[in-house]
Amino acid sequence: MIPKIVLWGYEIDWYWLFQISGILLGIGIFYFFKNRIVNTKLSTGSLLLLALLMVLMGFWTSKIAAIIEFYLTASEVEKNNFDFIGQLFDLGGGRWYGGIVGGFFVLGIYAKLIERDWTKIWNLISISILGGFCISKLGCLFSGHGCYGVPTNLPWGMFFSYGSAPSILPVHPTPLYDVILHFVLFVLLLIYTKGFNTHFNKDIWKKILLMSLLFNFLIEIIRTNPPIVFNLSLGQIVYLLIGFVLVLSIKFDLKRENIL
What we know:
By secondary structure, the protein is mainly alpha-helical. It has helices spanning 14-36, 44-73, 76-80, 84-89, 96-113, 118-143, 174-193, 204-219, 234-256, and strands spanning 5-7, 10-12, 227-229, 232-233. It has a two-stranded antiparallel ribbon. Strands 3-4 form a two-stranded antiparallel ribbon. A hairpin with a 2-residue loop joins strand 3 and strand 4 (232-233). Helix 7 (174-193) runs antiparallel to helix 8 (204-219). The model has no long low-confidence stretch (mean pLDDT 78).
């Protein structure tokens, strides 16, 4: 959408500038609440290692999700010309839902092996991811690499004139929708917990993640990702599966608390 920054003769990609900024912000949010509000076993070194492992696993699973989506929707000719290794190591072209699976897999292993208080660590990670996500998604908006929506006549439709996949018609700025929605969720989480001073021991992260999954499922309708089955994209299928597990988990929690 916006030309790349050039500093001292080097081009800086908007996408990775905001991705790295979002990761650093997420780590900063985690560290702030860990030290001021929550007592966890996570040292600074462990925090950085956990963040690095989540980012790396999230990156690889996002790439694997993109490759699976390609093989499910591409023609035989496209498959024969597909550079599997090149795509696997390419820095762009990942899928957010794949990153969710990979990142939370690492977090689950950590919570199981090291941090006994699952609720605290998952709530901390939730607000950290939400805060970082508000920044990292701006990379998609600024870069114009094709992660926008379908053409629209709505007054806020945008042209993405730069990047690897410029748009000819005004399109839905879906990255901007992502930023606004997840910023609202971020604020709601802060308000509900009063800065994590109260309610922190409840599984708030499940409800926040469920709302995020619902939004991402709906926003896929106006994205350009191809359908796989029943007119649903691979992302929508993954969101449905994760959402189903979350609903069962929330229902179990309510029964345990004798609410249901």
